[in-house]
Amino acid sequence: MTVQSESALPATLRAQWPYVPRYANVNGWRMHYIDEGEGDPVVLLHGNPTWGFLYRNMIGPLVNSGRRVIVPDMIGFGLSEKPTREAAHSLDGHTANLTALMRQLDLTRITLVCHDWGGPTGLSFAMSNPARVRALTIMSTWAWPLPPAEFHTRIFPWRMMHAPLVGPYLLGNHRALAGRGVYLSVVNREQFAHAAQGAYEAALPDPATRLLTWVWPRWIPLDENARAYERFRWLEQELSRSKFPTLIIWGREDEVFDATTFSNRFKQLLPHAEGPHLVTGRHFLQEDSGPEIAGLVRSFLKRLDGG
Amino acid sequence: MTEVAVIAKPDLQGKRLSFALAEDCVAHYPEFRDFFVRTFDLDRKGLAEPGFVRAPSGITYALVFIGRSGEPFPSGVEIHAIVDALEPLDGTILDRDLWLILRWMIGGVGAPWTVEDFDRTGRLYRVPTPPPA
């Protein structure tokens, strides 16, 4: 097992992440998170291959609007512990990791902000712990069994990228996802390369630390025999019955989870949801529109408060 | 020599196995596991010995297959370069060899997996070894 410390962050990027590092033991793993501000909690959940840094432009505005903002790094990413065996990772295990943190902090009235794998894990937490959750925000993710997008069925580049041995080589040795993969999935690539890419690469410095970047793609169900199929089927059913106030935000330029298909499917699942609000952004829309997304969440919560 | 070739067990006297790459889940797409079983006669040989290939660089590699209770064999595989015991391995040559071994694997797995898609994926992510388009 390896533990990545925050000191690995390049000095030029540390100013963008001035938060006190906190750690919790979840299911035997060391999870890094930040906990800023006071008020009803807003929990910001990232996915593959990012970490809390993805939300750096949203934390301040949310704290300043009177919210307690908690941003965990998924086990295997960011400043959290990074298991070196594939068997350490499962969809249910990651949901249980989040559940452990939420219970240790004894959070209630949570607003979950879910992106990428923060969707299946965060929404599974919400459906199994409804008494702790107040509202949901959903961005560039999915919550149903088959397949999330046509993109995920293609051999080039998706299935090839994480194929046996190819995944460890391309995504591990050559950090294809943590480096160029994120770069390709933002709109303003020049700004991203200058201001953010180093933070994602620094958090996954060596091939072994990048394990989850090729393991998560393998958890996307492509047929009914897939190991996560039943969990996603359950999640879709539970979500369709849920009445949580929900905000849907999507990137106009999202090519992985295209806005027309995916935001509309969430809207069908959750007809009471607000949105979809479209912002500038590909899959990692927080990189291009963080302050705007924070504004949408702030307004959404203010309306919930009756303001 | 331009191709990866399956070879018989080499003389390991004075050599070491230099770990290069590991895969915990070789059957994630079952046709990859089938390729290794077919190529190295694993249904018969089991854990008796690694598979051996020679890369175009001339370096020999051992493919060490891993078993896991409750799963078809092999569940995983490690690739080790066989090098002189006390000598370091050139990382650039290793990277090139790994690329060519994986390319050989993709070709052996067969349709719908193609070396063209493998090369395109490498170029998309700017891996230095794939041939230009």
Give descriptors for this structure:
heterodimer, A: 307 residues, Rossmann fold, eight-stranded mixed sheet, 13 helices, 41% helix, 16% strand, B: 133 residues, alpha+beta, five-stranded antiparallel sheet, globular
What's the topology here?
The complex is a heterodimer of chains A (307) and B (133).
Chain A lengths: L10 H4 L7 E5 L2 E8 L4 E5 L10 H9 L3 E5 L18 H14 L5 E6 L2 H11 L4 E7 L15 H7 L4 H8 L3 H8 L4 H7 L1 H7 L7 H8 L10 H13 L4 E6 L7 H11 L4 E6 L5 H20 L3
Chain B lengths: L4 E3 L7 E9 L6 H11 L1 H4 L5 E4 L5 E7 L9 E9 L6 H19 L5 H10 L9
Antiparallel strand pairs in B: 1-3, 2-5, 3-4, 4-5
Helix pairs in contact in B: 1-3
The gist of it:
The complex is a heterodimer of chains A (307) and B (133). Helices cover 41% and strands 16% of the residues of chain A. Chain A is α/β, with parallel strands linked by helices.
Describe what this molecule looks like in 3D.
The complex is a heterodimer of chains A (307) and B (133). Chain A is built from 13 helices and 8 strands. By secondary structure, chain A is an alpha/beta fold. Chain A has one domain (6-304): Alpha/Beta hydrolase fold, catalytic domain (Rossmann fold), CATH 3.40.50.1820. An 8-stranded mixed beta sheet of chain A has the order 1-2-4-3-5-6-7-8, with helices on both faces. In chain A, helix 4 (118-128) links the parallel strand 5 and strand 6. In chain A, helix 7 (177-184) packs antiparallel against helix 9. The radius of gyration of chain A is 18 Å and the shape is globular. The model of chain A has no long low-confidence stretch (mean pLDDT 95). Chain B is of the alpha+beta class. Chain B has one domain. Chain B is built from 4 helices and 5 strands, in the order E-E-H-H-E-E-E-H-H. Chain B has helices spanning 30-40, 42-45, 91-109, 115-124; strands at residues 5-7, 15-23, 51-54, 60-66, 76-84. In chain B, a hairpin with a 5-residue loop joins strand 3 and strand 4. In chain B, helix 1 packs across helix 3 (91-109). Chain B starts with a strand and ends in a 9-residue tail after the last helix. The mean pLDDT of chain B is 95. The chains are: A alpha/beta (307), B alpha+beta (133). The A-B interface holds A 85-87, 155-157, 159-170, 172-174, 176, 179-181, 218 and B 21-29, 32-33, 77, 79, 95, 98-99, 102, 105-106, 112-114, 117-118, 120-122, 124-127.
